[in-house]
Design the sequence.
């Protein structure tokens, strides 16, 4: 399976703007965006759990090799 993406990746291979496939979250300016789903108690996904966190400080974020 190939990915077609217009993500912005920094020099370290971290998603600055776009989708982090490891964590399954959208990122804007390195900040995880909330999923926007309605929540009824428990968190429903990583996007809600990790919302407003800096992707660079989250263990297991995606690191893409350039080349």
Sequence:
């Amino acid at each position: 399976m190939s990915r077609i993406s217009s993500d912005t990746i920094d020099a370290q291979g971290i998603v600055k703007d776009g989708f982090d496939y490891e964590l399954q979250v959208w990122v804007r300016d390195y900040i995880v965006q909330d999923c926007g789903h309605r929540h009824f108690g428990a968190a429903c996904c990583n996007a809600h759990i990790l919302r407003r966190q800096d992707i660079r400080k989250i263990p297991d974020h995606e690191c893409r090799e350039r080349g």
User: Anything to note?
Assistant: Strands lie at 8-9, 15-20, 25-28, 31-32. The first helix runs from residue 46 to 49. The first strand starts at residue 8 and ends at 9. The CA atoms of residues 17 and 28 lie 5 Å apart.
